[in-house]
Amino acid sequence: MSFTLERGCADVFVDTFTGLAKQIMWAISNEKDGSVVDFGISVGDNGVILKSQGRDTINFQPKVSGTTQDLNDVTIRSGAEEILVVGNNGTIVRSLSYGNMWNVVTPITSANLNAVRWGRFFQFAAGDNGTILRGTNFGLNWAVVPSGTTRKLFAVSSHLDEIQFVVAVGEKGTILRSTNSGLNWINVSIPDTTINFYSINPAAIGLTYINPFYICGSQGKIYKSTNYGANWVLKNSGTTSTLRSIYFTSDDSGAVTGDNGTVRMTTNGGDTWFTDPYFNNVSGNITSISKMPSSSRTYTALSNNNTLYIASEDSNIVFIGVNQISSEVPYGFSLSQNYPNPFNPSSKIRFQISKLSAVKIVVYDISGKEIETLVNEQLKAGTYEVDWNGSNHSSGVYFYQMLTSNYSETRKMVLVK
User: Do 292 and 337 fall into the same domain?
Assistant: First the structure.
């Protein structure tokens, strides 16, 4: 799948994305041999790793991760090609090639790892049971560091200063702080144990450093620290929805996403937060937001209801992906008739696969010209449903074809406007 952003375009576009992916991060202007290398990495359940390469283009393609464990977070080293991914049962996967090739690191813990972040001198991962790992050698070697808590940790971030300050946050108001590169940890938790913290802003975006730490969580809570995590000040987010991701592109400008399609922005360091009309169509629980390299200011938000939203001052693009209806293993492969049919402007296409397979579903016009790819990914056995929106196409007869290594079927559908 691919789509090129067009300046000045306010239409809504629909394409495919994977419902398995839940966290996304973009590299901003990484330079190699004098050239700029822009790419995005998204990770999800069952070992899914996807990569999109280029500026102004969304073109996610699956990569071989080497694991089937659920993957929970990804971090890209600022200005470089190294990437780390963490997941359940102590899984750590790394790439030293811009995400093209991946290797699984020998696990040193069985705890689920929920967060990972590059630091200036070390790497950090955090997870269940208060687990904190400290890495060296570009994430090849790891050691368990005592955190002083058994609470779940959901996020970690390291400030790139001469002294490496590190903050980890989690359930029941937990905030942990290190002033010596993650070797020792101080508990600076808030008194309110009804709050779970789910995200910390990255301390570096490309080669831009962000000085304050911002954290967000349940009940719409946002806290800010201007002294490397020693003290925290509550900010009014203007919402009570759970906030699951926070991302700043400078000290003052950033965004948060969360449940019920929540997307809010600030330009004054979190003192006030506002909505952007380009996110009006966003729904579901938005688990990730990051900046995509493009010719305009663009944020990329990834939700956990199978939809990737991309929005900027110039355009709003919606990628609707594959929705798994049932994990029960079917007897064989099948492609159902779309419904409704005829339709205007969208219709659903249901299909079944009986084993882990690379699946492709393509839409053709009456002349046989390929006009859109709805699915192009590896899926585990189950029953799936994908939408096709014909808003940008004229009335007429269209065909859709499902292809796997040992199955092929084509059906007809009619768009009537």
Answer: no
Phi, psi of 237 (to 5 degrees): -80, -20
- Same domain as 329, residue 297: no
| CA separation for the pair 368, 387 (Å, rounded) | 20
Output the CA–CA distances (angstroms, integers) from residue 266 to 55, 247, 256, 263, 404, in the order listed: 25, 10, 9, 11, 46
Looking up residue 107, the CATH number of its domain turns out to be: 2.130.10.10
Amino acid at 134: R
H-run or E-run covering 3: strand 3-4
**Domain that includes residue 354, residue range:** 323-415
pLDDT digits (tens, 9 = 90+) for 289-333: 887 776 655 667 776 655 666 665 444 444 445 666 777 788 889
Q: How many of the other CB atoms lie within 10 Å of CB of 6?
A: 14
Q: How far apart are CA 214 and CA 202, in angstroms?
A: 9
Asked whether residue 389 is assigned to any structural domain, the reply reads yes
Q: Are 250 and 210 in contact (CB under 8 A)?
A: yes
Instruction: Give Cα 220 distance to the centre of its chain.
Output: 20
The residue type found at 315 is: S
Residues ≥6 apart with Cβ < 8 Å to 109? 90, 127, 131, 133, 144
Residues recorded for the chain = 417
Of the candidates 311, 328, 308, 310, which has an alpha carbon nearest to the alpha carbon of residue 319? 308
Does any domain span residue 1?
Answer: no
For residue 395, the domain's CATH number is 2.60.40.1930
Question: Which of 304, 320, 336 lies at the terminal end of a domain, its last residue?
Answer: 320
Question: 66: burial class by Cβ within 10 Å (0-12, 13-18, 19+)?
Answer: middle
Farthest CA pair distance, the chain: 67
Query: 347 and 220 in one domain?
Result: no
Tell me, yes or no, if the pTM score tops 0.85: no
pLDDT digits (tens, 9 = 90+) for 154-170: 999 998 665 689 999 99
Q: Which of 7, 100, 114 is nearest to 53 (CA)?
A: 100
Tokens of 211: 């000085």
Q: How many domains does the chain have?
A: 2
Residue written as tokens 């009335």? Answer: 395
